[in-house]
Amino acid sequence: MKLIIAAAGTAFIMMTGVSAQDKPKLVVNSGHTSSVCGAVFTPDGTKLITAGSSSSDAIRIWDNESGRELRSIPLYVEDSVLSCTPDGKTLISYSPKENYSTVIDIEKGETIRACYGAASPDGKFIARSISDDGMIRIIDVRSGKDIAKFKKH
Hints:
This protein has strands at about 5-10, 10-15, 25, 35-40, 45-50, 60-65, 70-75, 80-85, 90-95, 100-105, 110-115, 120, 125-130, 135-140, 145-150. The termini are far apart. By secondary structure, it is mostly beta strands. Strand 14 and strand 15 form a beta hairpin. The radius of gyration is 17 Å and the shape is elongated. The model has no long low-confidence stretch (mean pLDDT about 75).
């Protein structure tokens, strides 16, 4: 199955398949209070996750079949780039503008870890630089503990 999304302002279009028989689903009012700036499907295609462009907006999780919103998660940064782990259980919201990552449990809608730095594609680690000690640290998202340290160049 192929999945496509297109966003314009606070609305977006979801389309499954790419044939003449497929009809796109139009979501006119997406519930976002700002422009949709990020969107990702879960790997199994059952959910669509969108993010507004304003820190006062939210991340919204949608059922792809019905188009119904399943949950809304507060968004604390602007212009999030979204990615989903291969198992479809974890969402990574990254703000390049603020170099801030939030790792979220998709089913529970709960933040697992949030901090400055970039998350790994599988959502298990965050690389971050702490300016006061001159080190780059790799932290385990679940425990929050350092698993590696590197001296900056």
